[in-house]
C-alpha cells in the first residue's frame, strides 16, 4: 500500500541569507517575519503533527523558506539535532532542506549527512550569469553546477528550483536553464514562474519599466515546455507555480506577474490540449460532433477550466459539439466522430507531443 505523504514544514526565514534577490520578500513568503525557529520549535511542531500520523503515513520534515545551509552553524545543528532525534525514533522518515548554491561545501554536506538530511533542494533559479546578476542572486551558474555535483557525490537526493521569467531572461534562456539543469541529473524539480511581490526590488523595477513580467499565457506555455523536457527525461516535477497561501495572493501580495491559484492545472490542460490538436490535425471536422473517451481522472485536464479546451477545439476545427465519455483505469484517450475512431494518444505521450509541436 502506498503511504500517505505528510510534510512537516519548518520555515527558515531570511536569517540564513546573505543576499537580497530582487524578487524575494522572504518575510512574506514564509509568513513568519524574521523570527528564527529553534530546536524547541522543531520539537513542538513535530509533536503536534505526530498526533495526526500513523504507520500508514510517510512523514518528511522540511526546512523551507530561506537558505538552510547558510544559517549560523550552531542554530543549524540545533535544528538538525531535533530532526534527527525524531528520525532515529522513526517518527520522521526523511528530512529535506532548501538552500542557495553558494552555501554548499564538502564540510556543510558532511554536517547534513551526520544529522540524517536526505534531500537538498537548490534554488538555482537560472543558469544564465547575466540573469543571475540582474536578479542580484549573488552566485553564478558555476556555483549551481559545483553544488549539484557535490550534493550528488555525497549521496543526497538533489532537487532543483528554477524561475522562468527573471529580469534579463528570455524563453530561450529559460529553456537552456532547464536543459542545463537536466544535464546535472536532479532527482526532482520545482518550477516557479517569477512573480512580482510587494516590497521587493522587482516591483520597483517593474514600476520603472525596467522589468516586464511574463503574462499568464506566456508562463503557462514556457512551464509546459520546461515540464515536458523534465518529464521525458524521467525527472519528477514536484511543483509548478508558487504555493497559494494566505500571504501570497493576487491583489494582496502579488503586485504583477503570472499568478493563478491553480497554475499547475493550467499547464496540464495546455499539454492535453496540444495532444488533442495533434491527434486531430489531419481530420476534416467542419460542423462535426466529436466524442472524447478517457479516464474519469483526466476529464478536467481534457476539458479545461470553464471548458476552455473545448472552446479552443471548437474554434480551431469548426466543430459543432465536443462531448466526453468516461472510462475507468485507462491511459488511452480516444476521439470518435460518431462511432468512428479518428484519433488517440496515450497519456504518457503528452510531453513528447508538446515538444514535437514547439
Ligand atoms: S537567496 Fe533565497 S532567501 Fe535569500 S534573498 Fe534570495 S530568494 Fe530570498
From TrEMBL:
Q: Which domain of life is it from?
A: Bacteria
Keyword Iron-sulfur present in the record's keywords: the answer is yes
Signal sequence annotation: none
Show the SUPFAM superfamilies listed in the entry.
Answer: Radical SAM enzymes
Where would I find the Radical SAM core domain in this sequence?
1-230
Which terms under GO biological process does the entry name? tRNA wobble base 5-methoxycarbonylmethyl-2-thiouridinylation
- Which SMART domains does UniProt cross-reference here? Elp3
Q: Which UniProt keywords apply?
A: 4Fe-4S, Iron, Iron-sulfur, Metal-binding, S-adenosyl-L-methionine
Single Gene Ontology MF annotation: catalytic activity
Extract the Pfam families matched here: Radical_SAM, Radical_SAM_C
Q: Name one GO cellular component term.
A: cytoplasm
InterPro entries cross-referenced by the UniProt entry:
ELP3, Elp3/MiaA/NifB-like_rSAM, Radical_SAM_C, rSAM, rSAM_horseshoe, rSAM_sf
The cofactor named in the record is: [4Fe-4S] cluster
Record-linked PANTHER family: ELONGATOR COMPLEX PROTEIN 3, HISTONE ACETYLTRANSFERASE-RELATED
**What is the protein name stated in its UniProt record?**
Radical SAM core domain-containing protein
The protein's organism comes out as Sedimentibacter saalensis
Amino acid at each position: 500500500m502506498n503511504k500517505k505523504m505528510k510534510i512537516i514544514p519548518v520555515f527558515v526565514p531570511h536569517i540564513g541569507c546573505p543576499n537580497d534577490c530582487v524578487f524575494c520578500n522572504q518575510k512574506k513568503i514564509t509568513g513568519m517575519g524574521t523570527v528564527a525557529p529553534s530546536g524547541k520549535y522543531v520539537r513542538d511542531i513535530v509533536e503536534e503533527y505526530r498526533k495526526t500520523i500513523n504507520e500508514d503515513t510517510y512523514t518528511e520534515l522540511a526546512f523551507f523558506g530561506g537558505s538552510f545551509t547558510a544559517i549560523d552553524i550552531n542554530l543549524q545543528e540545533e535544528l538538525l539535532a531535533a530532526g534527527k532525534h525524531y528520525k532515529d525514533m522513526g517518527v520522521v522518515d526523511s528530512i529535506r532542506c532548501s538552500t542557495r548554491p553558494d552555501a554548499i561545501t564538502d564540510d556543510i554536506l558532511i554536517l547534513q549527512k551526520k544529522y540524517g538530511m536526505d534531500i537538498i533542494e537548490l534554488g538555482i533559479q537560472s543558469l544564465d550569469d547575466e540573469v543571475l546578476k540582474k536578479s542580484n542572486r549573488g552566485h553564478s551558474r558555476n556555483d549551481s553546477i559545483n553544488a549539484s555535483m557535490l550534493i550528488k557525490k555525497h549521496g543526497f537526493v538533489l532537487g532543483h528550483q528554477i524561475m522562468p521569467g527573471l529580469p534579463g531572461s528570455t524563453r530561450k534562456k529559460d529553456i537552456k536553464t532547464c536543459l542545463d539543469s537536466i544535464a546535472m541529473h536532479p532527482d526532482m524539480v520545482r518550477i516557479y514562474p517569477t512573480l512580482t511581490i510587494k516590497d521587493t526590488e522587482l516591483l520597483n523595477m517593474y514600476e520603472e519599466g525596467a522589468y516586464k513580467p511574463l503574462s499568464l499565457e506566456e508562463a503557462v506555455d514556457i512551464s509546459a515546455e520546461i515540464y515536458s523536457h523534465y518529464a521525458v527525461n524521467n525527472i519528477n516535477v514536484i511543483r509548478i507555480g508558487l504555493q497559494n497561501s494566505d500571504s501570497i495572493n493576487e491583489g494582496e501580495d502579488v503586485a504583477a506577474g503570472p499568478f493563478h491559484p491553480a497554475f499547475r492545472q493550467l499547464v496540464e490542460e495546455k499539454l492535453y490540449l496540444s495532444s488533442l490538436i495533434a491527434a486531430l490535425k489531419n481530420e476534416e471536422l467542419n460542423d462535426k460532433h466529436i466524442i472524447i473517451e478517457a479516464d474519469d481522472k483526466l476529464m478536467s485536464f481534457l476539458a479545461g477550466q470553464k471548458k476552455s479546451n473545448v472552446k479552443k477545439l471548437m474554434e480551431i476545427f469548426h466543430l459543432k459539439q465536443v462531448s466526453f465519455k468516461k472510462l475507468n483505469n485507462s491511459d488511452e484517450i480516444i476521439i470518435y466522430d460518431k462511432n468512428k475512431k479518428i484519433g488517440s494518444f496515450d497519456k504518457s505521450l503528452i510531453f513528447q507531443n508538446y515538444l514535437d509541436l514547439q
